[in-house]
Amino acid sequence: MTPEQLIRHLSSRFPDPEAQYFVDNEHAVAIVPLNRLFDLIQTLKDAPETRFNLLMDLTVVDWLERKPRFELVYHLYSVEHNHRLRIKTGLEAGQAAPSLTKLWPIADWLEREMWDLYGLKFTGHPNLKRILLYEEFKGHPLRKDYPYDKRQPLEEETWPSRPYQTKMEEAERIHRP
Q: Who has the most CB within 10 Å: 27, 111, 119, 174?
C-alpha cells in the first residue's frame, strides 16, 4: 500500500471527527484521540490488510506552550506489506496513556524510557520504573521546563562493585603500544 492508499484505508475504516489522517513527506500519519489509541493500534496490528507487526519506536515531543503539552509518537511497520505509519496522540501532564506491552513486548522498554525522561505514565504497564537514570534522580531531564543546571543528589560511592574492578591501578600500569 502506498502512503496515500493507507491514509484512505484508515479514514474509511476508522472515521472519527477528532482524528486526522494525512501524508507528510511520503509518510502516512494519523493523529488520533488518546481514548481511541489502544483500540486503533490493536486493530492495525491484527487486521490482515494492515498487519503492523513491528513497533519501531515510541517517542515524545514536549510542546511546552501548547495544549496538550505532550505528543506521543508511535512508529509502526508492517513487515508483510512493507508500509509504515506514524501515529500521534496528545497528552497533558499528569494524564496517562494506555500501555502497549500486551501488543509488543518491546513497548516495555520504550514506555519506561518515556517515563524516565519525560515523566509520562502508562496505564497497565507491568513495571514502570526508571531505565536510564538512577532511582534517586529528581525530575525528568528531557522536559522543556527541566532546569539545565539542576544539581542532583550525590550518590554514595559504590565503586568498585565487582571483584575484577579492584585491580584497576595495576591495569593502568600495563604498557599498551
A: 111
Q: How far apart are CA 152 and CA 141, in angstroms?
A: 11
63 closest CA partner among 97, 91, 34: 91
Architecture of domain 3-145: 2-Layer Sandwich (3.30)
For residue 140, the tally of other CB atoms under 10 A from its CB is 18
Contacts with 132 (C-beta within 8 Å, 6 or more apart), sequence order? 113, 116, 117
- 138 near 153, Cβ under 8 Å? yes
CA dist 84 and 146 (Å) reads: 33
Extract the C-alpha cell encoding 40: 486503533
Peptide bond into 48 cis (omega under 30): no
- For the chain, the domains span 3-145
pTM: 0.83
Q: What is the pLDDT of residues 113-158, one digit of tens each?
A: 999 999 999 999 999 999 998 888 888 999 999 888 888 776 666 5
